[in-house]
Specification:
The complex is a heterodimer of chains A (265) and B (307). Chain A is mostly beta strands and 265 residues long. Chain A is built from 3 helices and 17 strands. In chain B, helix 6 runs antiparallel to helix 7, helix 7 crosses helix 9 and helix 8 runs antiparallel to helix 9. Classes of the chains: A mainly beta (265), B alpha/beta (307). The interface between A and B is large, with 47 and 43 residues.
């Protein structure tokens, strides 16, 4: 799904670039109206939904390759009323549509963190799509990293060498109490903008496409991801284990390779 | 041009002018070896991106440029300063790594048809980063950027095999490293004077920036520290002539933050906890600490997470 969207958007972006000089620091034309047209055509989106969503992102990206962000829902998820999709958009990245978190009432207090790439000055937005179909958005402006870092990453060879290694990290939980867990998978998350010197060609995009988080075989949430997610994709989230069981993370990448990890609680 | 005008009107000698050209002074550290010391600022239009140490080594036949400047404009100034000293052709432009403050002057030497030289992974790093740098630095450098081009190295050095370049009666030994400051660092040793040009493997005064591997950099520094040189020209900060080059200070910084980050990771702490707490005792020791320190912790954290 995300892959198809990426293709459509790349075409639109290609047209944009043909009109606007590629080297201008910030696109002259705001990207959001185009992005909205592609992904949320005809939908009404409520702005400044600070009553529902808190997006925590740094004002300035310290390192263009690793920008930690956290999304928190300020209202509990209930069977009657819950956010079913959280769309993460980074307007001025090569592929703005960055992730879609599919949620259920399984986790009632949602707080999810990840790490993203930031190419340039950009608006970052989170759009909550409710189970009744209504849409609510918050956005934040993030300044680009000023220094020598670049979104492509530091040592792709090292990341490739440990491709597919996974970790589930968490402190000892107490049953019935919320606990924070982190899932990381080692993956270069090639954006298609990296160059392979030996073969003198650009490396095809090769990125983590989907991450499923389950507890005792019940899905807690699923994320569709793309190339805006940092190398070695990381998800940090809070959940409440009601009873002992197994926390499982399953990862699929764009070459349909699958990786998984599990942790007994 | 301005410099020449002054010479004519006031009768200064050419060499005096060359060593302190107006606002682009060079320092001579050994016979035939000159560098311009960058300022400890972020690159901007006012400082034309001249924040790194760049310079050249003159042989009997030709000249090697070592890092070309942080903008096309700086490259031009470096070339003018060179021409005030010698008319010998530029046969090599050596890039110690891909960072913009070291390579954006490359195009200023292009019409001398030099051979561009770098680490075997430099061209890949350049291709991957070019678009991002072009966008950000054309904006932050303004007019000084105009003319800059990303010219990839054509003569490559692998970590397994150092490369010797002959400038005529003068040999340079180029050594490539495994991932340290970046994944493609290169040093240049002038055999005759035992002058080591470190690129950004060594920072003095200015806070280092980790853009490769904290573990790799510490290992590399330990190797370099064990050797002795007459003169060391770091990537940033003053050259060390017959004095200690502060390898220790940089090593201390890296090992201190590594130890503290490992503690946070072992305690299952988060990246945000690490950036908020790690290495704060180092603040007084480095210029631009607040600009780069959190970044360094971030970069090191995501590496050390996999230990």
């Amino acid at each position: 799904m995300l892959g198809r969207m990426i293709t459509i958007l790349s075409i639109s972006l290609g047209l944009m670039l043909a009109i606007h000089p590629a080297h201008s620091a910030t696109p002259e034309k705001p990207m959001w109206p185009i992005i909205k047209e592609i992904y949320f055509e005809g939908k009404e989106i409520r702005n400044n939904a600070d009553d529902l969503i808190a997006l925590d992102a740094p004002k300035r990206a310290e390192d263009a390759a690793i920008v930690p962000i956290t999304i928190k829902l300020l209202q509990p998820q209930t069977a009657d009323k819950y956010v079913k999709n959280l769309h993460l958009i980074i307007d001025n990245n090569p592929e703005p549509y960055s992730a879609n978190f599919h949620l259920t009432p399984e986790i009632s207090n949602v707080e999810i963190g990840t790490r993203v790439r930031i190419d340039q000055y950009t608006d970052m937005r989170v759009i909550a799509e409710m189970n009744d179909g209504t849409m609510h958005m918050v956005s934040k402006f993030v300044k680009a990293s000023g220094g020598c870092s670049a979104p492509a990453g530091k040592d792709a060879e090292a990341a490739l060498a440990r491709l597919g290694k996974m970790q589930i990290r968490m402190r000892e939980p107490t049953l019935g109490e919320p606990v924070q867990a982190q899932v990381i998978v080692s993956h270069p998350n090639y954006s298609g903008l990296q160059y392979d010197q030996k073969n003198r060609k650009y490396i095809n995009a090769h990125y983590v496409e989907k991450i499923d988080i389950e507890y005792n075989d019940t899905t807690l949430f699923t994320v569709d991801t793309g190339i805006s997610i940092s190398e070695d994709p990381s998800l940090r989230f809070t959940f409440t284990p009601a009873e002992n069981g197994v926390l499982k993370a399953r990862v699929t990448d764009s070459q349909k390779q699958e990786f998984s990890a599990a942790k007994q609680i | 041009m301005k410099c020449f005008l002054l010479i004519t009107l006031l009768g200064f000698t050419a060499s005096a002018c060359a060593v302190s050209t107006n606002d682009y002074p060079l320092q001579k550290v050994a016979d035939g070896i000159y560098y311009h010391q960058g300022v400890h600022e972020n690159a901007n239009a006012e400082n034309i991106g001249a924040i790194a140490n760049v310079g050249f080594i003159i042989g009997e036949k030709c000249v090697a440029i070592i890092d070309s400047g942080g903008s096309y404009r700086e490259g031009e100034l470096l070339r003018q300063s060179l021409r005030d000293i010698t008319e010998l052709p530029v046969c090599y432009v050596i890039n110690t790594h891909v960072h913009p403050d070291h390579i954006l002057g490359n195009a200023a030497f292009a019409d001398e048809n030099p051979i561009y030289v770098g680490h075997e992974k430099l061209p890949a790093a350049m291709a991957s980063r070019e678009q991002h740098y072009a966008r950000n630095f054309s904006e932050s450098l303004g007019d000084a950027y105009t003319g800059s081009q990303f010219i990839p190295a054509e003569m490559l050095v692998s970590p397994e095999q150092p490369l010797t370049l002959d400038l005529g009666g003068r040999e340079l030994v180029l050594k490539a490293y495994s991932t340290a400051h970046t994944d493609h660092d290169l040093t240049v040793l002038d055999k005759q004077t035992q002058t080591l040009w470190t690129g950004d493997l060594l920072f003095r005064e200015r806070i280092p920036a980790i853009d490769g591997s904290i573990n790799g950099w510490i290992d590399t520094l330990e190797q370099l520290q064990a050797k002795s040189y007459q003169v060391i020209i770091p990537g940033h900060g003053p050259a060390a002539i017959d004095e200690a080059a502060d390898w220790d200070k940089l090593l201390d910084y890296l090992t201190t933050i590594r130890e503290q980050i490992r503690t946070v990771i072992n305690d299952l702490g988060t990246l945000d906890e690490a950036t908020a707490t790690v290495g704060l005792s180092e603040r007084q020791k480095w210029e631009l600490f607040d600009e780069y320190h959190r970044r360094n912790v971030t970069a090191a954290f995501v590496e050390l997470e996999w230990e």
